[in-house]
């Protein structure tokens, strides 16, 4: 059973460019969350997708957008890149409730995409 | 608004010694609490979670945490540190079973042989 996968592993862009990061959730999971982790800091919540819609959003500008596909995979898009966008971008998948079992928001994380903006 | 503080950005312990990593949270409702571990250049792995079933929670790799409502704390402990425990540890909080998860700034654990 494959866990959460993310692509690419590393990415180098220049200021002003646009980037798309991709995430495939753990098998059976229907919810995808994206986090930004700057060096030496904890992950910061960007947004969460469920049923192909953005359900919650953190304190990030509109330059950050996303999408969830019918197969539950997701993309994170960042426009007009700034130097400060350099970070590790983490995708996490979860299953809130299935049948009689609640999963209590347990997030399964991918290895991340390291984005460097020059 | 929910938030997490972790006292001590760096903690060093000797191999075999007790590990204690501190976490305090703020939440307007009974929270869900988590501890995650992150090894270099990797994603986060769940160590344990509190979901109101029991105040003492046991996790993987010998770690456990105790929920203390009166102190709004959820400290992580391990009786005997192992070299392989050296990593970054994050405490996190969620107000519901489907709400966003808010992470603390992390504590870097070093284990001295």
- How many β strands of chain A by DSSP? 13
Low-confidence stretches of chain A: none
User: Portion of residues in helices of chain A?
Assistant: under 10%
Based on CA atoms alone, the radius of gyration of chain A comes out at 14 Å
Please tell me the overall pLDDT of chain A: 92
Main sheet attributes: strand count, strand direction, barrel closure of chain B? 6 strands, mixed
Q: Given the helix and strand composition of chain B, which structural class is it?
A: mainly beta
The count of β-strands of chain B is 12
What average pLDDT do the residues of chain B reach?
92
* Biggest beta-sheet profile of chain A: 7 strands, mixed
List the helices and strands and how they pair.
The complex is a heterodimer of chains A (118) and B (113).
Chain A: E1 5-7, E2 10-13, E3 19-24, E4 31-37, E5 44-50, E6 53-57, E7 64-68, E8 74-78, E9 87-94, E10 97-98, E11 101-102, E12 108-109, E13 113-117
Parallel strand pairs in A: 2-13
Antiparallel strand pairs in A: 1-3, 3-8, 4-5, 4-9, 5-6, 7-8, 9-12, 9-13, 10-11
Chain B: E1 3-5, E2 10-14, E3 19-21, E4 24-26, E5 32-38, E6 44-50, E7 56-58, E8 64-68, E9 73-78, E10 87-94, E11 102-103, E12 107-112
What can you tell me about this protein's structure?
Chain A is mainly β. Chain A has strands spanning 5-7, 10-13, 19-24, 31-37, 44-50, 53-57, 64-68, 74-78, 87-94, 97-98, 101-102, 108-109, 113-117. In chain A, strands 2, 4, 5, 6, 9, 12 and 13 form a 7-stranded mixed sheet that branches. The radius of gyration of chain A is 14 Å and the shape is globular. The model of chain A has no long low-confidence stretch (mean pLDDT 92). The relative contact order of chain B is 0.34. Helices cover 0% and strands 51% of the residues of chain B. Chain B is globular. The interface between A and B is medium-sized, with 29 and 25 residues.
